[in-house]
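Quick one, tokens below:
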């Protein structure tokens, strides 16, 4: 089996009910993230947390130093687990993520978090481009309603479209339960 690492992307307070940029189904996704964290920790496999902050106070969410930009308690890092701060959509851009994965001899990344249509998508594609095998745990990811050219796209449809696209050529798709039951 390839050496795996779990990448937990942007499970932060602003994405939860009452936050500035609520994601549909974030509580359910976070429960699955928590199950994945427990699974990786029990296996003593690497876990990397990604935390997004915009560089400006006038950002719509994840403002620097705010409670909304803090990692939600369901995904709280354990001692020794790196938390990488990013200012861009792609978790690899201007962060030490690639070096961190190489230091741990990681060959496969397992990705979860938010937003399905932005940061999860960008990290998945970049990880694949860097040569990692990639698994996306689809029910440990969340999205929100989108709009384009007057067309409203419900969150469930946005999530499904991005998971379908990633699953076509960039990543293996798995539910949290399926992943935990088959990877020991």
């Amino acid at each position: 089996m390839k050496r795996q690492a779990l990448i937990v992307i942007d499970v932060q307070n602003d994405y939860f009910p009452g936050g500035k940029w609520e994601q549909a189904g974030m509580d359910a996704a976070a429960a699955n993230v928590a199950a994945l964290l427990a699974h990786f920790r029990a296996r003593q496999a690497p876990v990397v947390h990604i935390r997004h902050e915009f560089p400006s106070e006038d950002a719509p969410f994840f403002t620097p130093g705010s409670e909304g930009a803090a990692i939600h308690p369901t995904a709280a890092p354990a001692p020794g687990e790196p938390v990488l701060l990013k200012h861009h959509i792609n978790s690899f851009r201007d962060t030490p993520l690639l070096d961190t994965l190489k230091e741990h001899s990681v060959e496969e990344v397992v990705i979860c978090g938010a937003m399905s249509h932005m940061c999860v998508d960008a990290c998945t594609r970049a990880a694949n481009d860097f040569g990692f095998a990639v698994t996306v745990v689809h029910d440990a990811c969340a999205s929100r309603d989108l709009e384009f050219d007057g067309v409203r796209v419900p969150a469930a449809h946005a999530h499904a479209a991005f998971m379908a696209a990633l699953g076509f050529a960039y990543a293996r798709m798995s539910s949290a339960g399926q992943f935990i039951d088959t990877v020991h």
